[in-house]
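Hi R.,

As promised, here are both runs. First protein below:
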Amino acid sequence: MRIKVPASRQLQFIQDYVWHKKHYLCNTGVYRDGLLICLLLSKVRQALQLQLQQSLIWFANLNKNQALINLSAFSKTMSLSKTIIGKDPSLKALLRNLQRVAATEATVLITGETGTGKELIAQAILKNSPRSQQAFITLNCAALPESLIESELFGYSKGAFTGANVAKKGILAAVDGGTLFFDEINSLSLAIQVKLLRFIETGEYLPVGAVKTLKANVRIIAATNTDLEKQVSAGQFRQDLYFRLSVVPLVLNPLRERKEDVQLLLEHFFSYFAQKYTVRTPVISTEVLDVLHQYSWPGNIRELRNLCENLTVRRIRRAIEVADLPREYLKQEQESLRFIKLPKTGLDWPKLEACVIEQALKKTNGKCQEASLLLGMSRDALYYRTKRAAVL
């Protein structure tokens, strides 16, 4: 019968052994050899102590880590950069729906603009589904030509076309038992749509050039960056396939409709890239937040992520100011000036100019170079105007 000895007791045994061994060796004729062995045993003792400390730290953090895992079922196997971030009510509702859907075998259709995180949602469904340990393959329908996508999806038999010297299994065979994610499924041709519809309905497919159908057990998740209902009306997408795909429709709102999530995402990605590039986490000024909240984010979360990486890599100081932002993020704020209406009584231009210059200097903490960039003028021109307006 084996007796399990606690780690702390094991260390005590080793310490006693080392002490007795050292005492014995140092009182015999082999003094020099004894010192060498004692040195070796001392090194072993240090290594064991370090291993014990690491084990104790690991056990102490085990419950804490388990609690963190249980807080978010969607991020338990994802890295920091792949966590679903947001407090927008529409996103919370989507995640609650996702948690119920993930445990089923239902086909899911995710609709959202480019960069909203459709593949991230698909991976969250996978990680919380019974097929989480099975294969997961993403097929970007827009990246492959029609002639190639059929053979890649269904496979082909030997001699099916020129160069097909051996038979090849397709993606459906490779993902059998797992999950297949069709990204940008709206790019599929009508001919491929017919064959995909048959597979979804029957679980059977015919490789290119083959005469015998094969079977595969695959869960389908699809994503589109366009309105499939409009494509159905235009005759560009099959209505029957649309119905089969949209058993559970999930809609991801664009970032411009989730303004309250902008700051959370900025803090998340700045923290991630600071860790990645081993630098201090940037601090975002309130002026920068105001500009980014007003921005329309045509590239959605992907664009915001790229901006955070850009600013983390090329920043000079820790605090990020408006002058650090690329020009395109200031254009929308400047374009809004076109909608300012001139009062009927006119205005005092020198006072208006002085007010604008004063605001620019306040935003940049009195730094003329940065203020001149905000105002779109040279530094010398700013000096002249501030002197004329008696701002300084």
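And here is the second one, sequence first, then its structure tokens:
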Amino acid sequence: MHNLPLSVKPSKSSAKPPLISVVINNHNYAHFLSGAIESVLAQQHSFGEDSVEVVVVDDGSTDQSHAVIASYGNKIVPVLKANGGQDSAFNAGFARCKGEFVCLLDADDRFAPDKLEQIVRCFRAHRDIGWCFHALRLEDTRLVHAVGNTSSNTSGNTIGTTRAFGGRGRDRSQVCDFRESLRFGTLPFYPPATSGLCFRRSLLACILPMPETFINTSADRYVRIAAMSLAPGYFLADELTIQGIHGNNVSTLRCDRPSIPERQIVVAYLLRTQFPELSQYADRLFSRGLSAYNRCSPETLEPEYADFIRDYWQLCSPMDSFLITLLRLYRDRPWRAVTHQAADYYNFTQSRRRAVAKESRVSAIR
């Protein structure tokens, strides 16, 4: 169904630096947008002058985003469209870009100065990979969000770094092949958000355009899972993007808004219909989303979720439905909340003990 060349044979023109496209998707982030654009235009690389293409997709913004985009003239490729969601923005941006390699960037994030150089170097060193993901540095940009400062030089305090592998002291850069594990329904890897995703065009062409659902969905999850199921890739432990944390993120570090796991229902449906070989992984994702959906208040959810749930059940065999139900019941087990409360209490008491011990040491020094 998906014929992907797993290797790229060197050609006579292989010495020529490839054209890289950076697709920036934006919706009402005018105060961040110039920072994202400038971070691409100011890249330090050894490519030719016209080798980096910046495609800015505005997804129906109602703020000053159009004025920001217009101010860059022919330095960027503008794509202005009606609001349709992240999935439609990905489709529109990919349709307009021409690069051999494609990097995605959210409008409220910024690339590190040498990101594109490192990404191209990685793809050249590993000719059989189709994707390259990397770590993100989380930065507090609430001041920018509050005052509407569009300066690309504005930076905040570092909050932390994303992790890709659990149970390790530190992540390390390495070749990754998750095709077999995904077919068995598991993924021992935590891929980054949109701004940490880079692809060969040949791979992304097997995924985009993706179906447009016209409801809130996690389009980046669909793209990265599909990519990892089709080709091996490379994880770079270097923090090549600064992800802005400003209180209005969709999910990252939102204390007042859950990660919206019910959106996984839509992603599961798309994966199962577009990539049937991922049915086991999609079923696990669906059970997780279904569990979250059943805990939400109906007034907080788009009615289309119910349609996706109905359609997903119709795709399943009796055995699939039985296993999904078991997974959902396990996630909804009544003692789970008690376990989480106990863990929270334990973490609180441990933190309190450390604080008291620190105060005692300070008092002793005085």
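A quick note on the second one: The first strand starts at residue 20 and ends at 26. Let me know what you think.

Best,
J.
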